[in-house]
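#onboarding

Welcome to the new folks! Below is a worked example of what a typical request in this channel looks like: someone posts a single protein sequence, and someone else replies with the predicted structure as tokens. Don't worry about understanding the tokens yet, we'll cover that in week two.

Example request:
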Amino acid sequence: MGLESLGRAVYRRRYIVLVVWAAIFIAALPFAPRAADFLKPGGFTREHHQAVQARRVLQERLGFSTVSLEVVFQHPQWTAYQPEFTQAVLRATASVAGAEGVSSVRTHLDDPARVGKSGHSVHVTIGLQMQLEEAIDALEGLTARIDPGPLQMTVTGGPTLYKDISLASEADLRRSETFAFPLAAFTLLLVFGALAAAVAPAVVGGTGVAVALAVIFFLSQGVDMSVFALNIVSLLGIGLGIDYSLFYTSRFREELANGRSVPDAIAATQRAAGTAIVFSAIASLVGLASLLAFDSMVLQSVGIGAIAVIGAALLASTTLMPALLSVLGERVNRYRIGIRWDKTGKSLWAPLSLWVMKRPILVLVPTVTFLVALAIPVKDLRLGTVDATVLPPSMESRQGFDLLREEFGFTLNTFIPVAYTFEGSPFEQGNLAAVYAYGRALEGLPEVKRVTSIVTLDKSYTFDQYKLMYARPEALTDINAQLLLQDTVRDGIVVFGVQSESHPFSPEARRLVGEIRALRPPSGHRTYVDGGSGEVKDIVDSLYGRFPLAIGAVVAVTYVTLLLLFRSLLLPLKAVVLNVLSILASYGALVFVFQQGHLSGLLDFQSLGMIEATTPILLFAILFGLSMDYEIFLLSRVAEAYKRTGDNRASVAEGLEKSGLIITGAGAILVVVAASFLAADIVIVKAVGLGLALAVFVDVTIVRALVAPALMRIAGKWNWWLPGWLARILLEVHGVA
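Example response:
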């Protein structure tokens, strides 16, 4: 069944379609608000990453905790080694030490470095032998066991961080929806100037979001999905659902104004607007489905959720929307409100396009220069991953993280644990010689400030001195050596602690991890590199090893899709190039704001000096599809006019006149929805919101209104050139081509 036939079928059974959709919506309602129930925190690392494997070795061989709670105790008067302070710390941690799943409790009595620089704070690590999800579930019970008494207690660490991220994500979603739906509805009123016409897209968009969230609820029970995906999927659902419905409603009103009956108007709208919507959805799906190729639960979750939400938006806009409009009929123009933008807006677009096409070079040079200038900060892009600074200072895990950094120097320098494994005793001459040589190799790396291990106690010590020292390890009198033997040595393994002055999430730290991994031990020996820097390197390498391939695949599939739709070799190329310009401008803004810290006070966040590694990939996948939506909305009207008149200049002017207001309205809705994410607590969500809002704004104001018509004027009839042999083998796409 073609789209036109589908439109006529929906018209004939419009009330049945409405009842079916009402039933679907009612069925989805209990589950949509619970979409976050089974979503997981984190999702940045994977089991096969080298850092995760290293952590497993450290856990199995040495009993290192894979997850820990970090507790800071403070007192305004007492200092750490006063009996009152020490006794209070021991009483506070006594009951938790024996709790199930707790493997260790380390205080300032075990390590003097656990006393803060003020002298009035102590850092306690509670090691847990459980997975992160188990630790999050056990968190409330564990913290309830800790009675700080007269001390002030702040709890942070992985479980508290990710629990707070989950809570903040849900709060961000509620807040953004509270802002987004009313703002979108208001924008629809401005665009249509009629209450009935504005309500229909809002209903269809809202229904699509509810259905998609319910689908995510059920999917998340069988598939691991990240809580970070929920906000992005919600944004896409609101934006795309309303966009498609807006385009559909506008075309329906136009067909009615041209004298068609309601059933004929539905059929004509389904044939023209429906085709554009289907191809727009395909373009968005291509970009977002590429996220499934990445080895990241966060990106895969967004990909899965996006497929659900775009599918729901497409189905609703091509079935529910025509059913609603079939019932409304001529009443779609009732209840006029405000300015008739459908008349005034169109009268503005044609003169603008003609003005641009009279002076295409004069328009093109400054606009493209401006876009390139926006993109320039991309050259300084630094990739990293999240820590507690993605959360607002009001949350306890963030407060604890700040205390660890300010009082104890956490995250200011890099610490990389390296497990060196072999067969037999570490004190056998061959093993000890290999371990000694490896320690010297580590110390020789440029970024390394210090290496802590049993064979790097003093740079002046020779191998013979270490051999003599460990001939009878039980007789050692050196306290540091005794502690290192106790904590970092077992048969078959020695652990090195590599320290550097670089930031743990910086490119310099990642480079150091790569240099350490490149050191090759003798045959039969292996090394495992752990730590936050190792995790970041694994994440970045995994993601950006595949990113160029994903870009190539998305661009190729999109090009072929537009080639089929518009039967032109040049127009798809132009669309791809303009999309890339918009995306690069968005990347430049991300670097300027979130990496370099400009506007951090206004947007209420703390700059990490880098961009979270998944954000550029997310933005590419989302923006490539969204920008293509606007290109398809514009070119579909231009192609109709050109097919009818054969006049390139007049066709561009007519296409902009008929689609300009809709593109502006659709873009405005997405801008306000994305901008509502700037009020989010989580910095990643803020970054995605700003990137989307800026890219869409640039796309609908500069790219579509100025750059696109200038390029089409310069290209002239070459816009529509297609070799004869290719024309014969391409499938005919009815309704647009």
